[in-house]
């Protein structure tokens, strides 16, 4: 029996995980990079570019969790895949359904997992000191021998290795052997191993010149010397854990960015026709409010003016940014997108402006930065209100002069980049509250476009829904043949707190649930949409909270019974209820007169 993953589950926090993953369709050399309750990041070394699942295709995954060794089997869909140079493939998979209780096993593992730290060769006194320094912030694994240390470090989730003891040669030999193992036999064949390996905090004796050489070669993260203070060890291990996770995620994001840039270039050369035969910038925009928005976008697109898009989350700010880019005359150069709320200040600065080799730990090569990659084109900065005052000052300089200087560098490069920023907050209020620099706001505020929420333009909903239906028919290889009138009524009646993004998710779910050639009806929509319509259309009904909740509960139960062919036990599993309790409520609502 499989347990489905809710289509509306919030995206949970990613945690580093480096374990072997078996896939079906088979993909050679596949390893996990990170994992959450809703998805997993993978790297692989396919024998051919066509090997394994492609983007939009279903995939079955099987892997074991570190520590407990519990086996996880799950079905999912490939959300994105990129085959980089060097025969390395990276992909992101969203989970759909777990086998049996495997979803519970994964959730338990993620909820209970701490920063995993391996401590090698510690004496009893050192073990007590390390335990006191890291109590409550890390789970410690002690290794008495080099083989134990190797086994623990390579188990899949150890972010840091603390090397202790009084035997200098033994400690240095462990560091060198781990470095040699990464260089000669990266288990996945899909690196870079320096980003996936545990960070080493060295607390054993060694000659200073030897430690400097190891540090410069990137083989140790910190050298604290024997008997470090509790605070020094605490801070070093926490920094090692953060740096390990950040660099692994940065490498994955670099591959995803490369994929996006290549795709954007391909799309700019030949844009596919939009559903209904109209231009892609007009699909779904039939309300007077959105017609006005499109007039503003067409007006400002040809001019090199910074644009600020304001609107609630999910209203389609990135879609408008892409339309603006296409109409700007810069369509032959990729649009670069960066979510400013996804990264810390240091990492975001590195991503936007670049860095030079050696400017910080982990900077093993020069990185040009997104402004340089977007030279001649457009950069879209989403959630710009999340930037810090320091970063806002640097953004202002780029807007005013076009000069970009990488982190740790001295050479300034001039770029010609159109900046489109977006926020789901009132930026004027952010300025008045002192959370955003006034000078940068006024520079961005030269042309502001306010995007109305979907609930204020219900006339756009049916056409947007049809657009998404045709989109997911193509990407998911389904054949839903349209939207029934009762479903259209339910879509129009709903308030759409998640705006266009929520509508997209609803249509994706409906297309996935549809049978070949089936028209999408209310049966395929989430129960909350049907209950909203029932409440709105019920004449003279009791308006009390209890009555409304009863009607919503009845609609949820009716939908569950319908989806599962009237089988009470299956409906109870889907609703997360006890079958006996569900049976009582089914009778109370008059949905089933038989015996349970």
From TrEMBL:
CDD domains named among the record's database cross-references: AAA
The entry's keywords: ATP-binding, DNA-binding, Nucleotide-binding, Transcription, Transcription regulation
Pfam families to which the protein is assigned, alphabetical: AAA_lid_14 (PF25601), HTH_8 (PF02954), PilZ (PF07238), Sigma54_activat (PF00158)
Family matches, as Gene3D superfamilies: 1.10.8.60, Homeodomain-like, P-loop containing nucleotide triphosphate hydrolases, predicted glycosyltransferase like domains
Matching InterPro entries: AAA+_ATPase, AAA_lid_NorR, Homeodomain-like_sf, HTH_Fis, P-loop_NTPase, PilZ_domain, Sigma_54_int, Sigma_54_int_dom_ATP-bd_1
Domain Sigma-54 factor interaction positions: 283-512
Domain of life: Bacteria
Protein name: PilZ domain-containing protein
Species this protein is from: Myxococcus virescens
């Amino acid at each position: 029996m499989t347990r489905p993953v809710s289509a509306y589950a919030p995206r949970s926090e990613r945690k580093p995980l480096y374990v072997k993953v078996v896939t079906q369709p088979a993909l050679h050399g596949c390893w996990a990079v990170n994992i959450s309750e809703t998805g997993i990041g993978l790297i692989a070394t396919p024998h051919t570019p066509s090997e394994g699942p492609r983007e939009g295709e279903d995939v079955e995954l099987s892997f074991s969790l570190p520590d407990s060794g519990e086996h996880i089997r799950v079905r999912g869909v490939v959300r994105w895949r990129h085959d980089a140079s060097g025969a390395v493939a990276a992909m992101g998979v969203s989970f759909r359904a777990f086998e049996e209780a495997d979803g519970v096993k994964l959730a338990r593992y993620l909820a209970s997992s701490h920063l995993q730290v391996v401590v090698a060769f510690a004496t009893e006194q050192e073990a007590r000191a390390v335990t006191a320094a890291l109590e409550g912030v890390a789970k410690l694994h002690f290794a008495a021998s080099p083989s134990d240390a190797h086994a623990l470090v390579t188990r899949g989730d150890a972010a840091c290795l603390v090397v202790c003891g009084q035997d200098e040669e033994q400690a240095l030999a462990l560091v060198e052997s781990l470095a040699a193992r990464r260089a000669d036999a990266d288990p996945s064949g899909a690196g870079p191993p320096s980003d996936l390996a545990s960070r080493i905090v060295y607390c054993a004796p060694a000659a200073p010149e030897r430690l400097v050489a190891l540090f410069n070669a990137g083989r140790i993260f910190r050298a604290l010397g024997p008997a470090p203070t509790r605070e020094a060890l605490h801070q070093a291990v926490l920094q090692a854990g953060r740096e390990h996770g950040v660099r692994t995620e940065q490498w994955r994001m670099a591959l995803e960015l490369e994929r996006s840039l290549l795709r954007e270039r391909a799309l700019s050369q030949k844009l596919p026709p939009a559903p209904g035969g109209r231009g892609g910038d007009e699909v779904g925009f039939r309300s007077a409010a959105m017609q006005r928005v499109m007039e503003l976008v067409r007006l400002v697109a040809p001019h090199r003016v910074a644009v600020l898009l304001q609107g609630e989350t999910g209203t389609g700010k990135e879609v408008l940014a892409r339309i603006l880019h296409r109409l700007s005359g810069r369509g032959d150069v990729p649009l670069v997108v960066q979510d400013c709320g996804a990264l810390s200040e240091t990492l975001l600065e590195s991503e936007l402006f670049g860095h030079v080799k050696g400017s910080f730990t982990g900077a093993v090569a020069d990185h040009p930065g997104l402004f340089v990659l977007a030279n001649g084109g457009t950069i879209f900065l989403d959630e710009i209100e999340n930037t810090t005052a320091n970063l806002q000052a640097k953004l202002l300089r780029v807007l005013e002069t076009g000069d970009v200087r990488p982190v740790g560098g001295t050479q300034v490069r001039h770029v010609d980049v159109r900046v489109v920023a977006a926020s789901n907050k009132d930026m004027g209020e952010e300025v008045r509250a002192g959370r955003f620099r006034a000078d940068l706001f006024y520079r961005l505020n030269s042309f502001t476009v306010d995007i109305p929420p979907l609930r204020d333009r219900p006339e756009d909903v049916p056409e947007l829904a049809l657009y998404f239906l045709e989109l997911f028919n193509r990407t998911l290889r389904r054949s839903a043949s349209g939207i029934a009138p009762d479903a259209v009524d339910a879509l129009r009646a709903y308030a759409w707190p998640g705006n266009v993004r929520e509508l997209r998710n609803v249509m994706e779910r409906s297309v996935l649930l549809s049978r070949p050639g089936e028209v999408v009806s209310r049966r395929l929509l989430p129960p909350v949409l049907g209950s909203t319509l029932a409440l709105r259309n019920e004449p003279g009904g009791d308006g009390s909270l209890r009555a409304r909740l009863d009607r919503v509960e009845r609609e949820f139960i009716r939908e569950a019974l319908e989806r599962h062919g009237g089988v009470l036990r299956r409906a109870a599993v889907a609703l997360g209820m006890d079958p006996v309790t569900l049976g009582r409520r089914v009778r109370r609502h008059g949905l089933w007169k038989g015996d349970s």
